[in-house]
């Protein structure tokens, strides 16, 4: 298998297991490239990529931009807040206007679930979903699995618990799809109000006791409490959430094994995890960020090779 | 599809020894010289030459690396297939070194062109030489010629030179295949 089965990366749901393996193997090569003194390859010198962000982002936007530049692509950046979108232009019009400037690929973040899928049906360019509402964030899930593979050797057979706001999290959904596809065992843990009602239909376990969840797992992926998405009160106070679902060093040290701690960022230090946990040697949070660039280079490279 | 034997195992062995001696003549101690095999097929030739130099000609230390040129190729998106990368392994600096690029077959010269670009990512070498086992005459697209060549052949465009190595394909043999 030497090419992806898809033309766009809209979600992990549409990928096959072999696609994920191909992305990981390609990312291995790019990881070697970005650790050279000259971190750039000329592969995509005739490709133009537009990064269209209708929602705020630091890490993902920088990571995509860096990946594109390391592949020698030309990059256009577009933020909705400074654009004609505020004047009432529709999504298709906005994107088609950008595409008429001869753009080959679009990386898009949008607050509405399914925005990428909608767009892929109406425009010619190859689309990469960089997060669509509470739906999917495929490159984050890929880099999370890649980081687990790097740290533990393999993803298959590992026990992974995703802790926090599962209800509003695109990272959780993409991670569940990716981990299940690679044969990992997945549990979700959080306050009942933040667990979707039919989450078990995805084949994941549900645990509301953090300690039990941590005792079971090899890897704990701690999600951020997304205050901007919490339209009603899902738990009484942040302090109470931290007491029940926050990970601190004391809790970590009381476990009889060393588990791996992950976090997609940005961290609310002292809420989901304390500072000493985030900075401990069990945490692979910064490795995730480094791997993000390699994974995005792999995805862009593999999708670009299908543009004729 | 028909194929005929271009070089047998015995002939390959003689040529490898000659190439090793030619390298030795120019580089002697290999102190300031590095050998770089171009992935995927130049790796076997580079390993074989290093082995001969170390075991039979008692060269103490040789820096050997492997360079993947996939991301530097000029035919990205021009073929039907996605170009698949292999591993690059160069754990030394090429800055100010005499570099010998090693590949099994020299055909259009485009791989070597890509390799020269790729090499720049690892520093500025003092000079770069090219060694190839089979040199296909009259087929170059670029002004690139080898410094060390095993055997020169005249092959028409429909033909393909297939180099097999014992460690990878079971025996040392080179075929000229009619496609």
TrEMBL record, chain A:
UniProt keyword terms in alphabetical order: Pyrimidine biosynthesis, Transferase
Catalytic activity as recorded in UniProt: carbamoyl phosphate + L-aspartate = N-carbamoyl-L-aspartate + phosphate + H(+)
UniProt KW Transferase keyword: yes
GO BP: 'de novo' pyrimidine nucleobase biosynthetic process; 'de novo' UMP biosynthetic process; amino acid metabolic process
Top-level EC class: transferase
Entry keyword annotation includes Transferase: yes
Annotated L-aspartate binding sites: 87, 170, 224
Stored InterPro entries: Asp/Orn_carbamoyltranf_P-bd, Asp/Orn_carbamoylTrfase, Asp/Orn_carbamoylTrfase_sf, Asp_carbamoyltransf, Asp_carbamoyltransf_Asp/Orn-bd
GO molecular function: amino acid binding; aspartate carbamoyltransferase activity
Pfam families, per database record: OTCace, OTCace_N
Binding site for carbamoyl phosphate: 59-60, 109, 137, 140, 265-266
Domain named Aspartate/ornithine carbamoyltransferase Asp/Orn-binding: residues: 157-302
Aspartate/ornithine carbamoyltransferase carbamoyl-P binding domain sequence ranges: 7-150
Enzyme Commission code: 2.1.3.2
Pathway: Pyrimidine metabolism; UMP biosynthesis via de novo pathway; (S)-dihydroorotate from bicarbonate: step 2/3
Top-level taxon of origin: Bacteria
Similarity remark: Belongs to the aspartate/ornithine carbamoyltransferase superfamily. ATCase family.
Subunit structure comment from the entry: Heterododecamer (2C3:3R2) of six catalytic PyrB chains organized as two trimers (C3), and six regulatory PyrI chains organized as three dimers (R2).
Family annotation (PANTHER family): ASPARTATE CARBAMOYLTRANSFERASE, ORNITHINE CARBAMOYLTRANSFERASE, MITOCHONDRIAL
Protein name stated in the entry: Aspartate carbamoyltransferase
Gene for this chain: pyrB
From TrEMBL, chain B:
InterPro entries in the cross-refs: PRTase-like (IPR029057), PRTase_dom (IPR000836), PyrR_bifunctional (IPR050137)
Pfam families found in the cross-reference section: Pribosyltran
Residue intervals of the Phosphoribosyltransferase domain: 4-159
Keywords: Glycosyltransferase, Transferase
Top-level taxon of origin: Bacteria
Gene Ontology MF terms in the entry: glycosyltransferase activity
Keyword Glycosyltransferase carried by entry: yes
NCBIfam families (UniProt xref): PRK05205.1-5 (NF003549)
Protein name per its UniProtKB record: Pyrimidine operon attenuation protein / uracil phosphoribosyltransferase
């Amino acid at each position: 298998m030497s090419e992806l089965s898809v033309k766009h990366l809209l979600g992990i749901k549409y990928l096959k297991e072999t696609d994920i393996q191909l992305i990981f193997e390609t990312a291995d090569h790019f990881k070697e490239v970005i650790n050279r003194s000259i971190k750039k390859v000329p592969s995509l010198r005739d490709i133009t990529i537009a990064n269209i962000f209708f929602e705020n982002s630091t890490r993902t936007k920088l990571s995509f931009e860096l990946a594109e530049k390391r592949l020698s692509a030309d990059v256009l950046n577009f933020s909705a807040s400074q654009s004609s979108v505020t004047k009432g232009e529709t999504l298709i019009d906005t994107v088609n206007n950008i595409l008429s400037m001869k753009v080959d690929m679009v990386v898009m973040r949008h607050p509405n679930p399914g925005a990428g899928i909608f767009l892929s049906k109406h425009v010619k360019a190859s689309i990469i979903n960089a997060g669509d509402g509470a739906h999917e964030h495929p490159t984050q899930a890929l880099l999370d699995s890649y980081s687990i593979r790097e740290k533990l050797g393999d993803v298959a057979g590992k026990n992974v618990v995703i802790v926090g706001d599962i209800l509003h999290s695109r990272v959780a959904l993409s991670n569940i799809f990716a981990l299940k596809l690679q044969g990992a065992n997945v549990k979700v843990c959080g306050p009942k109000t933040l667990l979707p009602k039919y989450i078990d239909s995805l084949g994941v376990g549900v645990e509301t006791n953090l300690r039990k969840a941590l005792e079971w797992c090899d890897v704990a992926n701690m999600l951020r409490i997304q205050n901007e998405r919490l339209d009603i009160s899902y738990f009484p106070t942040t302090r109470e959430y931290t007491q029940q679902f926050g990970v601190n060093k004391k809790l970590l040290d009381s476990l009889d094994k060393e588990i791996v701690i992950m976090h997609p960022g940005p961290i609310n230090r002292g809420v989901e995890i304390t500072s000493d946990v985030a900075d401990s040697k069990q945490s692979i949070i910064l490795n995730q960020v480094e791997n993000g660039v390699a994974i995005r280079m792999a995805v862009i490279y593999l999708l670009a090779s299908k543009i004729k | 599809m028909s194929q005929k034997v271009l070089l047998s195992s015995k002939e390959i062995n003689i040529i490898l020894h000659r190439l090793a001696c030619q390298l030795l003549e120019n580089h002697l101690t290999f102190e300031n010289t590095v050998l770089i095999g171009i992935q995927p097929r130049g790796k076997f030739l580079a390993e074989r030459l290093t082995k001969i130099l170390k075991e039979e000609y008692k060269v103490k230390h040789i820096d050997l690396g492997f360079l993947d040129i996939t991301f530097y190729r000029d035919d990205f998106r021009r073929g039907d297939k996605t170009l698949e990368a292999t591993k690059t392994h160069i754990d030394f600096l090429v800055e100010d070194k005499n570099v010998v690029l090693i590949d099994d077959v020299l055909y259009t010269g485009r791989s070597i062109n890509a390799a020269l670009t790729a090499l720049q990512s690892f520093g500025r070498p003092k000079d770069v030489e090219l060694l190839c086992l089979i040199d296909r005459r009259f087929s170059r697209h670029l002004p690139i010629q080898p410094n060390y060549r095993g055997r020169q052949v005249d092959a028409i465009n429909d033909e393909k030179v297939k180099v097999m190595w014992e460690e990878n394909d079971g025996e040392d043999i080179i075929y000229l295949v009619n496609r």
